[in-house]
Task: inverse folding
């Protein structure tokens, strides 16, 4: 069963996203809503990773070797300024999107494995990831015209 | 004779449930005048708070000489707030601005209107030239102009310049009221009527010190409390305000924990069967989710988070749950605090699950703080579109485009209008290059003042300030425009309970000062804004023409004014919108049939996630099939962005005294009011004071991560761990070369609610230390209101004396 690999992928994606939210919060502390909400969302990602952890451990016991190119690098540090903020939020968006689709995949696998406990975690968490995407889109939509058309 | 400084609320006129509130006409005429000395009375309403008390202005020899309440009006039945009794004297203050000022060589110098407006227009045209020119303009207006002025400004911004960067200081006072009503009921618009006080059997005041902010509404509540079958009363406030002292149950919660309290109260109400199952079923969405979330807040947990006794939470729930006609009022203790929109929505939830809405006595006032805040929201001079339209609904924007005869894409609607804190951020970053501030004083009222001053003094930022006086903000401007004020111009405005009043011109403005409307119209003419047919975009010349145009904009929307005329507003009582041909006398209550404004084609918003402010799309909203049902939005409690630590162990909350309004621009120039509360003070609980070795009158330093100020200590009934500062006190009446830091907002944090974008003024972490001994001289804090000292304290009472003698009676 290869579910362990996808659980590992999701777990690592949540840990990475939490870390990226924190880096963006620190880098753009002059945008108070960004700082506050990125910190808040980092904690959400922590909680997701924590809830996934027991399943990662349980399923990895009888898992085959991890396939090549499972993990990808979506974030390489923050930028500065108005357009820099936009790009950083875009990185977060892509990372959250990776989590979002991975929740879907893991959820499907949970159905197949008849694992009600895992399914409950997926159903609890995937909506929160969807809200992260929605918030990032909302904030980027508001910021884009000023950053791309107006600012010097 | 009554001294309305010593007794702001005057004599009681008790009455019972269902009876009409007795008339009591309050009057103050200066210099010993009587009615016989008055040449004429000019109709108006109160301008120094949001209650909308109708009054007449007394004119003698071409000058305002006093005011009296209008007995005929539904709101106040003749009563007048002390701020309005005495505050009009500021109109005559010798330091009124009478000529425009422009900055030359670093100094503001007097000039003529042509020069001042010429500079603004030259800079505007330069900025507008080129792609994205619209984005260089920011407008920050007020809650104190008239409807006609806001609407004109809104059209200039949205259809003339095409900028979304326009907001009001209403963002600081009333944005959460609007956000919560949009979220719960589909659109802005107060469900209730002030007459709900006449009918209710319980009143809950959520973070609302109504006794000091809307004294006439408090008089009405007190008159019910002193009459037969009085309503029960619940107060939620960390301070021992007059409301808290009057209440049967007072929950002095730890600042920033309102959502935990509300969830706990709702849990009790549901578990004990005090909710209206049929109403919930027929008229709401989201009950199961609400139950799931509030279930995690048993009284013991609420007691831990909020630091109030669990038994008091249960008593409060019983008071709310067993009432038959429940009235709630909500203000800054909720709106300016942590999780503001969620907490205000929770009050709406309480009324929805109990079916306490849309009938006499069962009402909600999501209050405003300022007299014309409601109009700013209706006309779209803030972060809304005119007519309570939905920026994300293409059809709504098309309606405006047709009305104004402009291309739909001229009107910015790619995102919500920019909120005030973001406007200042863009100015800080340099992309907003012209900031036009009208009738407000951000250099005292916004959070983290050193930052605001830095922004306003940026050389690249062209700052226009339109005001009555050289305020702390005007001092930093590049152009200062002298404005006329209440009593010197005509216009309309609308109270918390949707009552529209007219305020007629009584006297001429001083010198060359002009009505704000004339200034905006002059700018529109000089900028030569055109519609799509090449005709002038704005061709109005006076307030009544603007009002008639606004009526068309409001047609078919919740705030429908089409049945109102200036003529109809003169002579009698104010009229509540919606007022149409079908409802020519206005509408007392909204949602009387349990049908809410949530239809997708009608609603003002498609909704937000309350924790992040993430916006939902039209498709997602439609999928919920709201179908006229109200939303029960519920979230978990989250701690404030700033909580006390070792370095800053106390929580600061800021607020108001009954004697001052906003940044004292007017009340600080009315002698009776200013003498009653002449300088800043800091309120401390005696236990905290003892810990820091502080006694009454000592000079105390209060500091946060943002700054430090000084104030004299008042020991009083505020809850332990919390200190209070009035936010009114800035620097205009201090020697410019020797200003002692005293503005509360030097300390406050730059942070805001994710949905309403209202800044958090109630949750800064601070440290206090004694700076100097008071030598037995008490602090300048009034002995009336929330700053009242303990009964045994040796503090002389606040009185007005002969200069404050007013009359009050049945007539």
Result:
């Amino acid at each position: 069963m290869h579910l362990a690999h996808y659980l590992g992928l999701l777990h690592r994606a949540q840990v990475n996203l939490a870390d990226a939210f924190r880096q963006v919060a620190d880098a753009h502390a002059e945008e108070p809503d960004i700082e506050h909400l990125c910190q808040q969302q980092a904690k959400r990602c922590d909680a997701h990773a924590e809830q996934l952890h027991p399943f990662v451990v349980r399923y990895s016991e009888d898992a085959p070797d991890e396939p090549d190119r499972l993990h990808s690098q979506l974030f390489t540090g923050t930028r500065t300024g108005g357009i820099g903020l936009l790009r950083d939020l875009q990185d977060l968006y892509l990372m959250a999107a990776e989590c979002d689709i991975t929740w879907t995949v893991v959820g499907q696998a949970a159905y197949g494995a008849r694992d009600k406990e895992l399914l409950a975690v997926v159903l609890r968490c995937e909506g929160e990831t969807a809200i992260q995407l929605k918030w990032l889109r909302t904030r980027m939509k508001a910021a884009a015209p000023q950053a791309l058309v107006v600012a010097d | 004779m009554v001294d309305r400084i010593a007794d702001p609320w005057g004599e009681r006129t008790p009455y019972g449930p269902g009876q009409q509130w007795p008339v009591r006409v309050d009057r103050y005429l200066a210099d010993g005048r009587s009615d016989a000395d008055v040449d004429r009375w000019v109709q108006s309403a109160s301008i120094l708070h949001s209650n909308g008390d109708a009054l007449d202005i007394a004119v003698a020899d071409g000058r305002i000489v006093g005011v009296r309440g209008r007995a005929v009006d539904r709101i106040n039945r003749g009563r007048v707030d002390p701020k309005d009794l005495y505050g009009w004297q500021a109109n005559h203050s010798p330091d009124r601005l009478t000529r425009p000022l422009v900055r030359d060589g670093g100094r503001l110098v007097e000039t003529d209107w042509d020069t001042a407006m010429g500079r603004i227009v030259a800079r505007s045209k330069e900025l507008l030239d080129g792609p994205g020119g619209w984005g260089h303009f920011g407008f920050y207006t007020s809650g104190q102009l008239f409807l006609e002025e806001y609407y004109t400004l809104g059209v200039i911004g949205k259809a003339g310049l095409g900028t979304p960067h326009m907001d009001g200081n209403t963002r600081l006072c009333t944005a959460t009221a609007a956000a919560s009503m949009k979220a719960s009921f589909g659109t802005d618009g107060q469900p209730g009527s002030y007459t709900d006080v006449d009918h209710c059997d319980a009143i809950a005041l959520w973070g609302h010190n109504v006794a000091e902010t809307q004294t006439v509404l408090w008089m009405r509540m007190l008159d019910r409390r002193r009459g037969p079958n009085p309503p029960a009363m619940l107060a939620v406030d960390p301070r021992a305000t007059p409301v808290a002292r009057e209440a049967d149950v007072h929950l002095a919660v730890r600042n920033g924990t309102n959502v935990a309290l509300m969830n706990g109260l709702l849990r009790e109400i549901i578990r004990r069967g005090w909710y209206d199952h049929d109403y919930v079923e027929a008229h709401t969405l989201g009950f199961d989710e609400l139950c799931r979330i509030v279930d995690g807040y048993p009284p013991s947990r609420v007691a831990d988070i909020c630091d109030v006794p669990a038994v008091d939470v249960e008593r409060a729930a019983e008071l709310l749950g067993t009432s038959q006609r429940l009235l709630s009022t909500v203000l800054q203790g909720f709106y300016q605090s942590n999780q503001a929109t969620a907490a205000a929505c929770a009050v709406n939830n309480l009324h929805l699950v109990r079916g306490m809405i849309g009938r006499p006595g069962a009402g909600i006032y999501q209050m405003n703080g300022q007299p014309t805040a409601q109009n700013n929201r209706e006309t779209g001079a803030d972060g809304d579109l005119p007519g309570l339209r939905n920026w994300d609904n293409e059809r709504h924007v098309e309606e405006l485009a047709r009305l104004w005869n402009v291309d739909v894409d001229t009107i910015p609607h790619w995102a919500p209008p920019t909120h005030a804190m973001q406007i200042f951020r863009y100015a800080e970053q340099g992309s907003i290059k012209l900031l036009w501030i009208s009738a407000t004083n951000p250099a005292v009222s916004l959070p983290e003042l050193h930052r605001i001053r830095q922004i306003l003094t940026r050389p690249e930022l062209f700052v226009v300030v339109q005001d009555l006086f050289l305020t702390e903000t005007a001092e930093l401007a590049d152009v200062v425009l002298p404005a006329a004020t209440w009593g010197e111009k005509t216009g309309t405005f609308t109270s918390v309970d949707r009552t529209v009043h007219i305020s007629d011109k009584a006297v001429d403005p001083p010198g060359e000062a002009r009505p704000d409307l004339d200034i905006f119209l002059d700018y529109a003419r000089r900028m030569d804004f055109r519609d799509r047919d090449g005709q002038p975009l704005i061709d109005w010349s006076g307030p009544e023409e603007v009002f008639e145009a606004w009526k068309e904009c409001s047609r078919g929307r919740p705030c429908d004014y089409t049945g109102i005329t200036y003529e109809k507003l003169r002579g009698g009582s104010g009229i509540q919108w919606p007022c149409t041909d079908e409802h020519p006398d206005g509408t007392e209550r909204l949602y009387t049939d349990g049908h809410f404004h949530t239809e997708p084609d009608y609603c003002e918003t498609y909704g937000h996630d309350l924790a992040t402010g993430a916006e939902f799309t039209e498709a997602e909203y439609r999928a919920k099939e709201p179908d006229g049902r109200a939303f029960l939005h519920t979230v978990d409690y989250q701690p404030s962005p700033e909580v006390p630590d070792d370095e800053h162990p106390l929580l600061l909350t800021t607020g108001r005294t009954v004697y001052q309004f906003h940044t004292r621009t007017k009340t600080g120039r009315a002698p009776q009011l200013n003498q009653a509360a002449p300088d800043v003070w800091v309120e401390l609980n005696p236990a905290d004071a003892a810990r820091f070795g502080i006694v009454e009158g000592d000079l105390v330093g209060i500091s946060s991560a943002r700054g430090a100020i000084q104030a004299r200590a008042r020991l009083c009934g505020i809850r332990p761990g919390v200190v209070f500062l009035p936010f009114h006190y800035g620097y205009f009446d201090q020697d410019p070369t020797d200003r002692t830091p005293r503005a509360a907002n030097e300390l406050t944090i730059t942070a805001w609610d994710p949905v309403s974008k209202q800044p958090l003024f109630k949750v800064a972490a601070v440290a206090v230390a004694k700076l100097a001994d008071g030598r037995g001289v008490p602090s300048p804090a009034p002995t009336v209101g929330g700053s009242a000292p303990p009964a045994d304290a040796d503090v002389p009472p606040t009185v007005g004396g002969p200069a404050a003698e007013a009359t009050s009676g049945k007539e």
